[in-house]
Description:
Layout (H helix, E strand, L loop, with lengths): L2 E4 L11 E3 L4 E4 L4 H11 L3 E4 L7 H4 L1 E3 L2 E5 L4 H9 L4 E4 L6 H4 E4 L2 E4 L7 H4 L4 E4 L12 E3 L3 E5 L4 H11 L2 E5 L12 E3 L4 E4 L4 H11 L2
Amino acid sequence: MPVMKINFHGNSNVGLYGFATDKFCLIGKGLEKNILKKIEEALEVPVYEIAINNSHLIGVYCSGNEDLLLIPDIIKENEEKDLKKLKLPYKIIKTRFCALGNNIVIKDEIAMVNPEFEDNLKEQLDMFEIHKLDIGGHNTVGSCMVANKYGCLVNRDVSEKEVEKIGKLMNSKVEIGSVNMGNPYVRSGIIANSKGYIIGGNTSGVELMRIDQALGK
Length: 217
């Protein structure tokens, strides 16, 4: 699978800046056009620049899958107008956990979410099967996991029982790893779909090998 190793704005936490599915990739505004082109080539999907709450940290705010993008209700009116122009299916989620990317992981019909989410999340995400869980003592499940249709990478604090549970829920392989020389919050350093992935520039060869084992074909 294509791999792009890079820093954005001098920052190796590239996962904070983008969100990708097998149909599109959203990136915070401000990257050079040649970098956007390389992202398109690596992920093999169109790349769109957007902002949420006047921020370019799109990976922090977005979750979902290729069929439905989840956006927090802190998105500004003008930003939502820009989003509508892209004609992507999306749903605005009302919650105090506005960093949806850190708190929700979607794979197919399964949604793994922070156990502290409000009870009305089930009503808002009634198209998904909701599972509240933490990973290795971290309730921000979205920050600790990266998944595509081939598998899932989770942080190094996860237990064997949790690996087994996640594997059953997602019906896929689960590998343990880190990014950017030991960062356990794997989502912070990866933008991935089932066609390729972008990783932070400080990611080691050993870490890349584990990422490939988890997310590769």
